[in-house]
Amino acid sequence: MRIIVLILVFFVSPNIRAQTSLLDSLQNIVSQNRQDTTHAKALLNLGITLERSDLKRSAEYFWEVLNLKEDSGFDKFKANAAIRLAGNYSAMGKLDSVYYYFEKSEELRKSDLNDQKLAYNLYNGKGIHFNRIGKFEQALFYYEKALALDHKAIGQDNVAGLYINLSNVYKQLENHKSNFDATFKALEIFEKTQNKTGLAFVYNSLGAAHYHLKNYNEAEKYFLKSMEYRKVLGDKRGESMVLGNLANIFMDIGQNHKAKEFFTKALEMQEKLGLKELVGIQLYNLGRNYMIMEEYQFALEHFQKAQKVLKEAEIGTYDAKILADLGKTQRILALDKEAIQSLMTASEVAVQNKKYSEASTAFRNIKEYFQDRGKFKDALEAQTLEFAYRDSVGIGALQAQLKEVESRYALDIKENEISLLKAEKELDRLELVKRKANQNLIISIFAFLILLATILVNKYRIVNRTKRLLEVEKLRNSIARDLHDDLGSTLSSIHILSQMAIQKGGVVDKSLFSTINIQTAAMMDRLSDIVWSIHPNNDSLEQLLSKMKEFAAEILDPKGITYFFEIEEGAEQVKLDLEKRRNLFLIFKEALNNTAKYAESRHLDIKLRFEGNKLELLIKDDGKGFDPQQIKKGNGLFNMQQRASMMGGCMTIVSFPQSGTSIQLSAPIT
Q1: Is the CB of residue 664 less than 8 Å from the CB of residue 614?
Q2: What residues does 650 pair with on adjacent strands?
Q3: Which among 7, 194, 405, 516 has the fewest CB atoms less than 10 Å away?
Q4: C-alpha–C-alpha distance, residues 639 and 509, integer Å
Q5: pLDDT tens column, 587-635
């Protein structure tokens, strides 16, 4: 950390001098008071230059542009000044002024509706504003309008900026794959153009993505890269944001006093700049930090201040988060009536806005509230909702998506480097043809081939090593997720049920113990599956087929259901990786369980065949069937679909009342 700080100090000074020189140059033009387009452009650029460090002075220069004389030649500059003022007021939470200046910019741009750059500035400005106040669909609408413009006219850096802004909306909508894709598209462009402002934003966005997935070391690395650029650029607003992001990491890893220091520093900078949204966020983060430090009264005060600031700015994006933590703090402080009201409102807002991770947090806090008061039935219902919404987030899948995108980006860069190397060598070869004899030419070509072969061999090794590491990491995440989700959920339920049994005193409630017995058996069964899947003796497909037949006999024979296995010849020689074998068995197991429990069938056909690079599993019964439109999809069907997706394939369920059910899985072998 100390080395990074020293490097930052070394680079800051020249850039501050450069910015000061630019300001002096622009102010010199303005002082001449020519009242021409050069004067208007200088005023506009002064405002833009000061936007990230002094909003008040920035706004004054934009007002000067708007107060220039009535002349169609100034309309373009005035429209841009109005858009910038709308953006500044959006950051300060003054919404009436935001809409006034956006309308003014619309009027001013009528003099040249074909100006693509001006159209980009307007659409992008509106997208940023609507994202800030939580109107994400409107934000996406304007960003997509901006992306539809001529990319050459608006410039590659601005296209990359749009991808960054889109990634922020996707993050709020919890569409993490689109978030990662948009972020890396922006990074690819900014790396080519070496745009420091753009790189500062994209590294901050990558840090936020890794922070969300709890990859704290990677998150800190990207945040520090962003901070380096922010300091070089004199971007006080961006610097305060990164300070807050670093503070979040310190809070999560237990360095709460350091987190408090960083949050406070960020808050002071944002209050000075008049950025209401960011002030509200830092007040909320300080409240969370105080809660972890068990200073609950301070936590309560900061949550309430955050609510007030964001409400004044008409920003509802963080309502569910703040209410969930406010309710938890009120519960701890024995403010029962206020606590349950805050928690219930938090869950409603989160579900309504489809923010499932926030909904899971709210229901967890509701569960703890009911447990403290001995209302175990209500606690059990809240826990069921907590796990349902938490499972929909799919952290393991998100980690895999991020690693996939990062790997693809890294490999693309490697391919570009190899292509450039080839081109350079080809030019060298042509030059040697002119200058040197055939002997030197042959030597050069030979050296080139050796170098190329070395690069290709190294690339092959790196790719294989990376694949192996990703497979190991994927397996670890999968095992951790299964142990946490399946066993953790069941153990928690058993804990609550046992508390209910104890609460009844001397009265024996056999139904409670029956439920505990059923859940314990289910947990043992799941644990057995996990242990079987990771044992090295079960790596072959032959072992998997044997276990499938064993399970079919175990579940169907006691029910009197006949069944027929049809397995394509040579299936034992087919190679499937561990994750695909495991998901194939769990889909098979869930399908047979559903048949045995609900189908009332007499016979079952099971077919497994391989065609080209795909496997197909068909499970068909002659039971009573069901209407897919009428039946409520439970965790079983959802898990089967999710596992099929994890295999890179798809699953089709066809069923009609009194006509049996057919389940068909199709997935790639490799």
Answers
A1: no
A2: 666
A3: 194
A4: 32
A5: 998 899 888 888 889 999 999 988 878 889 999 999 988 877 776 555 5
The C-alpha atoms of residue 571 and residue 565 are separated, in whole angstroms, by: 13
CA distance 23 to 274: 22
Do 501 and 512 form a contact (C-beta atoms < 8 A)?
Answer: yes
Q: Which helix (H) or strand (E) is 563 found in, with range?
A: strand 562-567
Q: And the tokens for 530?
A: 């996990």
Which contiguous run of DSSP H or E holds residue 82? Answer: helix 75-92
- Cα separations in angstroms, 221 against 3, 210, 252: 13, 10, 16
Q: Looking up tokens 């806005």, which residue turns up?
A: 353
Residue 155, SS3? coil
**CA atoms of 652 and 665, how far apart (whole Å):** 7
Q: Give per-residue pLDDT as tens, 404-458.
A: 555 555 555 555 555 545 555 555 566 665 666 667 778 878 888 888 888 888 8
Q: In terms of C-beta density within 10 A (0-12 exposed, 13-18 middle, 19 or more buried), how is residue 346 classed?
A: buried
CB 173 within 8 A of CB 195: no
The arrangement of strands across the sheet holding 614-621 comes to 562-567, 603-611, 614-621, 661-668, 650-655
Q: Please answer whether residues 286 and 264 qualify as being in contact, where contact means their C-beta atoms are separated by less than 8 angstroms.
A: yes
Cα 203 to Cα 222, 228, 259, 456, 650, distances in angstroms:
5, 10, 21, 30, 35
With beta carbons less than 8 A apart as the criterion, state whether 65 and 44 touch: yes
Q: Are 662 and 619 in contact (CB under 8 A)?
A: yes
Distance, in Å, from the CA atom of 247 to the CA atom of 200, rounded to the nearest integer, reads 18
The strand pair at 614-621 and 661-668 is best described as: antiparallel
Structure tokens given for 262: 């960083």
Instruction: Show Cβ contacts of residue 121 under 8 Å, excluding neighbours closer than 6 positions.
Output: 79, 80, 83
Q: How many angstroms separate the CA atoms of 251 and 453, rounded?
A: 48
Smallest CA-to-CA distance from 650 within 614, 606, 596 is with 614
Q: How far, in Å, CA of 500 to CA of 512, rounded?
A: 8
C-alpha span between 365 and 379 (Å, rounded) = 10
Q: Where are the alpha helices (DSSP H) in 353-437?
A: 356-372, 376-393, 395-435
Rounded-to-integer distance, Cα 390 and Cα 358, Å: 9
Residues 325 and 310: beta-carbon distance below 8 Å: no
Apex 665 CA angle, 664 and 666, nearest 5: 120
The Cβ of residue 207 has, within 10 Å, a number of other Cβ atoms equal to 27
Strands 603-611 and 614-621: antiparallel
Q: Which residue is it, tokens 């209050």?
A: 271
Please give the structure tokens belonging to residue 645: 């997706």
Coil/strand/helix, residue 600: coil
Q: CA–CA separation, 594 vs 603, rounded Å?
A: 14
Residues 6+ apart with CB under 8 A from 385: 347, 359, 363
Residue 288 CB partners (closer than 8 Å, separation 6+): 251, 299, 325
DSSP 605: E
Residue 197's nearest CA partner among 244, 156, 164, 229 is: 229
Instruction: Extract the tokens encoding 151.
Output: 């990319």
Q: What DSSP element (H or E) covers 79?
A: helix 75-92
Least-confidence region, from 292-301, 392-401, 579-588, 647-656: 392-401
Distance CA(10)–CA(591), nearest Å, equals 64
- State both tokens at 1: 């950390």
CB 592 within 8 A of CB 554: no
**For residue 161, which of 115, 129, 125 has the smallest C-alpha distance?**
125
